[in-house]
Write the structure tokens for this entry.
Amino acid sequence: MRSTWVVFNYALRESLRRRVFHAGLVLTVVFLSLYALGCSFVHVPESPFPGAKVDVSVAATILGLAVFATYFFGVSLAIFLTISTVRGDAEQGVLQSLIVRPLARWQFLLGRLLAAVAVAVVYVAIVFTASIAITSATLDWAPQHALAAGLEISAAIAVVAVVSMLSSVYLSGVANGIGVFMLFGAGLFGGLLGEIGDALNSPKLEHTATVIRYLAPFEWLYQSSLGRLIQGEGGFTRAALRLGPFGGSINGGTAVWLWSAAYALVMAAATVLAFSRRDL
């Protein structure tokens, strides 16, 4: 495992010194600043319905938009850090100098994956926490289960990184980035279908959305995290909330964790197998 940590440290330093990563941090600060400014301008209207907490509904919906932005930023970062893990590094001649004894190929993959997930998850945790803090300070509301929601967003980012690692064995950097983003978009489309199916009471659309969740469990984790944000709210307030532009809140429960773990393990095993058969 010592070799794995050597690769981890190398990949971590490589990720943190890239200019694109620094530019992303600057843009994140801009996003959080604009989010804080927008929240400070929000006017909470009086509730026209008895028992409905409009202030909670407004704050939770706005936070849901920030969570989607955090999810998108985290996915983009995870893809960016893994798109060239195998084929891209091989084409540049970097991989050949790293894959030498006693470093096994699976140790190289594990080290690169851990570094990418560590950077992306820490980034997501910071932006997610900052968004909740801004919402609490400006709109006087914070979710009761923020930790669980943050863990599910982080798990979604990790699943995306594993998928991107697998496709990096076969595709060049640009093609890999496009392919994984298309899969990410398919997940968002599935979430949108689920919302439409629920609104129209269409079992076929809801079934299609469920199938897409299983094919892209990172979207399922994202929707489950939205459900965590309003966990504890009840009555009309909970029924009125739709926290994401692509996929409403659902209760993923234990099933989403079990399926996502199995999905990630299968993808990781396929990556190791494909890489072991690849000529460098």
